[in-house]
Task: structure prediction
Amino acid sequence: MELLDAARVRALLDPRALVEALRGAFADPGELVVPPRGHHRIDDALEATLLVMPAWQREHWLGVKVVGHYPHNGSRGLPVIHGSYLLADATTGAPVAVLDGGELTRWRTAAASALAADLLAPQEVREHLVVGAGNVAAVVPHCYAAVRDVGRTRVWARDPDRAADLVRRWQDEGVEADVAPDLRAAVRTADVVTTATSSTRPLVLAEDVRPGTHVDLVGGFTPVMAEADEALVTGASLFVDVLEALHEAGDLTQPLAHGRLTPADVRGTLADLAARRHTGRVSAQEVTVFKSVGTALEDLVAAGLVWEAHRAALGGGR
Result:
C-alpha cells in the first residue's frame, strides 16, 4: 500500500479531467453505492466535526474518507480540513493507497461546482467573485477554467491579508485576479459568486445579486452554517449536489424550518444536470443557486483518478 501525500495528489489531479470524470459518474453512476455518511460532533467549543464517507463500485474501487473539519483553524494558520482517504480494490478488499484527504476534498469540491456551473452559469463570465480565502477557495479558478473562459477572478475574505496573499498566488499561477475590498459591492458586479466559508451568517444577500447571476454555495454543510440569505435561496432557481443537502445545510434547513422553502422547490440535483434530465439555466435573466454539501461519489472518483494517474506515471497498471 502506498501513501500519496498532498503534493503528490495535487501533481496528479488534472482539473479538466476531474470535472469530466465527475460529469460521467453523476450522469451514469452504474453500480456505484454511496451509503449515508457519518456526521459526528467532536468538540462543541471548537465547532469541530468528524465526517466518515464510504463509497464503492462493483469490480472497481472501494474507498472511505475520514475528515475532520475545524473551522477555527484558519486563525491558527492551519487548514480547516484535515483528512485521509483509504482506496481499496472493490473485488478483493485489498487496500492500494492512502491519499491526503484534505487535498482530495478541496479539488473534488471545486470540480463539482464547476460541473454545475457548466449548465447553470452565464456563458460569458466577465467577473467571478470568490468569497473566502481558504484551501477550497484557492483552487476554484482552476476548476472553473475547465468550463468557462473567466475574465477576472476577485476574492473577498474577512482577513484582507489572506485575500491579498491568495491573489498573489493566483497571479503567479496565471489567473487574472484582484482583491474585492467591499463584499456587497463586489457581489453587485459579479456574473458568478462562489462562497467557500464556514460562515454562520449570510454573506451574500438577494438584494445585491444581479439578474442572470449564478451563485455557488460551497462552504456550509451543517444546519448552523449559512452563506446566503433566505431571500436569495427562496427566490432563485435552486439546485443541489445531492438531496441530503436539504437536511444538512443551514442555507436550506433554515428556510425549510421557517416555511419559506419546500423540498419541491429544488429544481434538480447535480445528477439531473449531468444526465440532462434538467436543462439548467433557461433564461439570461435567471438567478441560479447551486448548494453543495459534498458526496462520497466525488471522493471515490477523484481518488481513483489520482491512483490511476500515479500508476501510469510509474509505468504500471491498475
